[in-house]
Amino acid sequence: MTTNNHAHLHQIHTHIAGPAQHAFEAAGGHWTVMRKSVFEAVAAEGAPRTAYEITDHVSSALGRKIGANTIYRILELFIEHNLVSRIESQNTYVACDHPQNPADCIFLVCSGCGKTTHLDDQATSEQVRALATATGFTPDRMVIEANGRCVGCSL
Amino acid sequence: MTTNNHAHLHQIHTHIAGPAQHAFEAAGGHWTVMRKSVFEAVAAEGAPRTAYEITDHVSSALGRKIGANTIYRILELFIEHNLVSRIESQNTYVACDHPQNPADCIFLVCSGCGKTTHLDDQATSEQVRALATATGFTPDRMVIEANGRCVGCSL
DNA sequence: AAACAAGCGTAATGTTATAACATGTATATG
DNA sequence: CATATACATGTTATAACATTACGCTTGTTT
Ligand SMILES: [Zn+2]
Ligand SMILES: [Zn+2]
Ligand SMILES: [Zn+2]
Ligand SMILES: [Zn+2]
């Protein structure tokens, strides 16, 4: 019975699931109400959000006060599972649109309007990795960000 | 007399000056005791340091308690003048060895020992800039960092 | 049932960064 | 020299970002 229930729930979940949930569960993670809510908060807007903005969003969505550490825990988990990226120069978090395959995401952050563009360019990230490797360094995670002005703000 | 004094002091300063001081003064900056002390704190060790570590170091050096904002002000100034770089993924600051010419510095940060290697590779940084520009973005400052393991820690 | 691990709650604290306003210091000018 | 002015720093407080420690609940394993 327990097995049946679990199978049933799993089926429902995967049925509703977006790619993020699917990838997360495929890796053995549990797509709880809390985690679902955090992911929706991160993915909600185009703009990246700070951990405390996400905290407020989730608190509103769930109708009760959520502690910041709960959010940080889940963000860290999501980053490990490639569902979320942290933008280091902004202290913000953004949902990845490619949870299936890890990537060295590149972000263009506009200092005018805050709009952030997400790029994946393997040739570029590989060049950085190669440069690091050439020195004997073993790279793990890449941080490639450009701060400047978007098209709309460059006037 | 005032003019004489100034000329004299200036001569002494430039005589002792390292490249950083020289470049800073050439750009019209004043190499005050405070700024000198902050620069020495940043440059003191190979490892990058946090703003509060620098604050403590400077406080010790001057024998009195310095406020964190004083340090942040000067770090910002140094970054603008290309004397210091901020490592975004670590919240640390490191002295630049090329104050004369601005560069898109690349940092390799070891997660084992904290050792940070500073690279300048224009081909790589230009590729990132070109990628950004191709989207209509106008890049200003680049952030290119690799987190991983240095030679000594990769065993 | 008992043992165990995962997930989250709660509160406190630590760390990094900035704001607002006062005071001091160098330099120019009359 | 006196005074005006801009620059530099001091002081205090607070904001913003992140982690620690501990306990409770729930689900899973034995
Ligand atoms: Zn990506
Ligand atoms: Zn913009
Ligand atoms: Zn450099
Ligand atoms: Zn190392």
- Name of the level-1 CATH class of chain A: Mainly Alpha
Largest interface: A-B, 34 and 34 residues
CATH superfamily of chain A: Winged helix-like DNA-binding domain superfamily/Winged helix DNA-binding domain
Bound molecules: zinc ion
Strand-residue proportion of chain A: 15-25%
Shape of chain A: globular
Going across the biggest sheet of chain A, name each strand in turn.
4-3-5
* Overall average pLDDT of chain A: 89
Helix and strand sequence of chain A? HHHHHEEEEHE
CATH architecture of chain A: Orthogonal Bundle
The total beta strand count of chain A reads 5
Question: Unreliable segments of chain A (pLDDT under 50, ≥5 consecutive)?
Answer: 1-16
How many structural domains in the coordinates of chain A? 1
How would you describe this structure to a colleague?
2 copies of one chain form a homodimer. In chain A, 32% of the residues are buried. The first copy, chain A, is built from 6 helices and 5 strands. With 155 residues, chain A is an alpha+beta fold. Chain A has a single domain, classed as Winged helix-like DNA-binding domain superfamily/Winged helix DNA-binding domain (Arc Repressor Mutant, subunit A, Orthogonal Bundle), CATH 1.10.10. In chain A, strand 3 (106-110) and strand 4 (116-119) form a beta hairpin. Chain A has a 3-stranded mixed beta sheet, covered by helices on one side. A two-stranded antiparallel ribbon of chain A has the order 1-2. In chain A, helix 3 (33-43) packs across helix 4 (51-62) and helix 4 packs across helix 5 (68-80). Strand 5 (138-149) of chain A pairs antiparallel with strand 5 (138-149) of chain B, so a sheet runs across the interface. One zinc ion (ZN) binds next to loops of chain A. One zinc ion (ZN) binds at residues 110, 112-113, 115, 150, 152-153 of chain B.
